[in-house]
Amino acid sequence: MHTGGEPVRIVTAGYPPIPGSTILEKRRYARDHLDHLRRMLMFEPRGHHEMYGVLPVEPDLPEADLAVLFMHNEGYSTMCGHATIALGRYAVDTGIVAPIVPETLVSLQCPCGLVRVRVAVEETSSGFATGAVSFESVPSFAFALDLQADVPGVGRVPCDIGYGGAFYALVDAGAIGLDLSETPLDRLVDVADRITRHVAATVPLEHPDDADLAFLYGTILTDGGDGSAGRPSRNVCVFAEREVDRSPTGSGVSARIAVQCARGLPTGERRDFESLTGAVFSATPVRRERLGRFEAVRVEVSGRAYYSGRSSFSVEPGDPLGGGFLLL
What we know:
Layout (H helix, E strand, L loop, with lengths): L1 E2 L2 E2 L1 E2 L12 H11 L1 H8 L10 E5 L8 E6 L4 E2 L3 H13 L9 E8 L2 E12 L2 E10 L3 E12 L3 E9 L3 E6 L12 H18 L13 E7 L10 E7 L3 E2 L5 H13 L8 E4 L5 E12 L2 E10 L1 E2 L22
Parallel strand pairs: 3-4, 5-7, 12-13, 14-16
Antiparallel strand pairs: 1-2, 1-19, 4-5, 5-6, 7-8, 8-9, 9-18, 10-11, 10-18, 11-12, 13-14, 14-15, 16-17, 17-18
């Protein structure tokens, strides 16, 4: 599938069992013992540098309809909004969750926690059809506001750090002399990657639930707008190993909303965010709550996902490149 052009490769069969009493234990097991399968599925010749994947696992929360691990070119993320939107449709279309008109609720366990997904469903002459999808984020919060980072090769960078299931450095591209419509993509990627590496090395992160969640996933360069008044705010998310999200980034817009709420955005006010493909996610803070020492907010994110095909992959004995490779 894809959401806003960002791939969602969902594994439906072929993986060995993944042990672990919690989803974070399963994530660690997959990372430590089954990473050759991630590389085989994500890397060339079956994938590419920007590929993204979903690995269903057994949930450990009784209320979860399904649980998943997220995979990309560097490892295993803790949350993925674009994949969550695709998984909502997938769960209903495949019968994991029975369709209910006009809306079906899917409870999805992600490494960052339980995410409630709402899938629009309509009855047709041939059965049911799924459409737009919304999900409510895990508690999202502003970790730091108005940081000044002296980034090698970039200079002084004003930034915020927000959490929306993963941590991101949020940077107004214009404040550092970049234009999301004019600056070449490779320059945007290079600057964002330099910011990520510097902030990750100099700003200790923490998450009240688990230390495994406390890492900087990437940097989001924005156009400086807030997405209000029918003017979507464009952003470019560079995550993992210089991977560029084709979608507006669901966990990223949750982090952006959390930062806006820390600066006074009230609940109930919708904002729109656009990616380089022109895809738009809407995001609305729906309620505030406390998470450890942080004032957090639940964010409803909405978008569309589409099917793009089915594949069956194999590795022929003796293939020297069968385990996967990347040309950067």
